[in-house]
Design a protein that fits this description.
46 helices, single chain, transcription regulation, nucleus, mainly alpha, 2 strands, 65% helix, two-stranded antiparallel sheet
Length: 950
Amino acid sequence: MTSNLSQVEQVTRASYFSGLSAEEWTAAISEVCSDIVVAEDLEHVASTICDTILSLLASFYRDPTLKDYLRTAVLTNPLPVQLWHVVRAFLKHVRTIHDPSTMDMICRLILDLHYGIHLGPLGSLVPYTESANDLLANISDAIYLLRISYDIPASPFHNLIGSSSNLLSLLLACIGDLTSASTAQLTLTLSSVHELLQIVTLEDNVRNDLDTLLLTLSLLLGDSTRQAEDAEMFANFQMTPSRQDTTGPNPSFDILSGSLIMNRLVSKRATQSGAGCEDIAVANLLAWYRVSSQTLPVFFAHVILSAIACLAQESEAGRGFIWKSFVLGRIPIIMGNFQERLILEAAAVESEQVDANAIQSAIAQVFTHTDLLNQCEPNVRSTNALPNGESMEEETKGTSFRFELLGALISSNLMDHPSALELYTGLPTEFPSKLSMEAQESGTDVDMFIESKFSPDATLEDTIAFLERITNDHRSHAMLASVLCPYFIRTSLAADVESLGRICKALTDHEQALDIMSLHAPLHDMVAHALACLEDYDLTTVGDPQTAVSHIGEVVLFLQSVLARFKITSSVFHINDRLLRSDVLHSSSAVYAPESLSDPDKATLDAWRKAIFDRNSEGIDDDILRSTKPKTLLCLSATLFSDAVASCIAHRIDADALQNGVSYYMGPLLNWTLVGVVQALLDEVERASFQSPQHVQVLETILADKSCPSVVLRITRQHLIRVYSDPKAQGQDSTPNMVSLANSVLKPLPPTSTSKDQGTWLAQPRSMLRYALACANAGRVPNLDVDRCLAMISVRTFLDYTWRELLESASIGKIEICRRFATYLLAPTAPTTPNSSPGSRSPPLLPIFLHAYVPNLLLSIDRLVPAEQTLSIQLLCTVIVSALTFSVNFERALLKPPVPDGLARMNVLPSAAMAKRLRLDLRKARGQSALALFQKLSASSTFVSTFPSL
């Protein structure tokens, strides 16, 4: 069959370059296809024909011969091409055809053929058997086509907007039951629709269809939101919004706003919401600064003190490493970039110069908070132990937090040495990093020195020892990340799996080094390139597939480790316009029924079953490795084990054959598949309540084997603890050993509840909210994992809980704390563009709150007594103004250079659209509360100055 497809492509290309007419080409293709009768093979032929023609059109714009080829292919009976084949291929090639006239020509050809067939869109443009996932994928591509058509200058030679709008409308008409669509596809389509509605003024019929789809997708994803409508760009947006009214007073030390932002940057560090993404980190500081009324020195003092407060609190809980690395290694860099951004903006608008000594003034204020600083010292001392300006003993200087903080600021050129000496005498003039000193001693530059530590010539022990030295020196952290991240990406692009596997192995084994990378480098980019390497690597061309598979396995374990360690639930990543998915890594524990597998997967499963669990097998040969994609093997391993254990129970294979098969998986050739295998076995042991000794034995054999990668135990640890904490496990002799084994990789987990009470589970988010607000009210650093809450309850329920807790705090006079806390929960934290990798499946809360939750909330406020109405409206207005003000400044910060990938064509702020939509909704709403809120917003100088065009 492969040779036939190759012939189809060759004949098509040869016919075109030979100048053959469409009829002559049809005759040639028909001859090639004459012996193909299997429906599935004919499908492949049709796809190949369309792909070949469209790839030619990507190089030869508006060619009438190729257009005739497409038309004739659909209209000629001997050829297996249906119109939906053309639609699929065209939408797949949209990103490669850069000529608008060509895209318009193909769109119009599709529309003409559709209307000439006299069938509905379903049956013509979309096959009757199309899956929900495939249909949504096509719709997402059609949305992309329509979006870029608005970016293309108008021309008399094409009307791409009109033709792409018609095509999208017809595809939307094919939507039926979407309940079978995957969450990832639903989320991806929702994001595409949401962005299109925000940035493009669409025709009414298309907008109505998309609004309907948006509502359907939102309901399927668990919320009943209506998204913000399109709005004009922030006309006459003021650079410095008013800082009065509902933005509230600013205390001398705003620990709440700062600590919430710092917590988000650190907890989301591996995603586009965190510290590893430079532009996002700076945008957070810019938004915070612009909505505050602070001078620059005071603001810098708040930034540093907020981070130190988090460090002090986390150090008490034994989690100080990452925070100390953040405060000493990352915050100075972010503040330096933030200051540079302010200087650039000031120069652009010819405003007053930025205070170049702001950070030096700020650190003087910071050093007056002696109690807070003392909590960060290696051994907590009294205030008198480190008096201001008093020198310490020589041997303690290197361990003093004050010493390290001043050294970090001096090294980052944020503070001069004389000013630092006024705060801490005896400081050296230079603070060289261990990395630069080691590189100098080796006689090489830093880049070559770092890369040499990860080369195939270096032993893993040497690499781990190197990482251990570097992670203990915060001055080396940024340098390590700035070299290792590009090196990682280069090796993945070059498909150098040996070097890539070495880096992945080292970072997987040394988690502190991985944490450092996540603080200083865009880890989501590294994940995307690793996924691309896993997807593209061709084992058929390598000389030693066993070694290559082992290296690819290290990449898989690295990916699984990153996704688990940083709780990245989103399965979508991007490299420019290329979309990559991590679904197989999230679902590697899935056990598939044979009938649900495709024929190639069934054949692969049978081949591996025979190679591993057949007593007469000669083992795993190179041919089976070359013919199996690593992703396929990862996907099928849990099924392979489940089938083998079931065969042992049914006496189709004996226990020795089973154990022999398990032993294959303990070596580097296959042990990278064990995360999914162990999770599947734990699921089965839990389901059977330890009544299946074969499953228990295989599980414990794997976990107790010293060759089982430690990352497998780290990822499955909580699941293992939960299963073996069940009372039904107490009769197992191995239970203490399994619990001890689980606790050997990390410190012991707190006791795991085995309660099946759903009410207790669903009450956790409210308890987390209540505790976070209690911390804020008590002056402690609050922390709330919103993604975790939204994984347990719906968005509507979460907003209900949030409002009730905020109202309770406001009733005791804590409205300012409520404002800051709500702003943190609702405001955006990352760009929402097609090429962004958010790291979480949680939807944006602010548009849902404003357009789906507030209208119902206002109706309930109408039923309250006057005093409660007044408090509720005041709180609601305060929250809305603060969240929208922070949001619009955050988005504006992203639109200014430097701009993250994917935002360059963004020409409207979503917050401006949300504010306009809210005003219109309130104006049309009936009820006293809606009127009161409308009047309060209209009277707010902050709201009016921030959105002057509304």
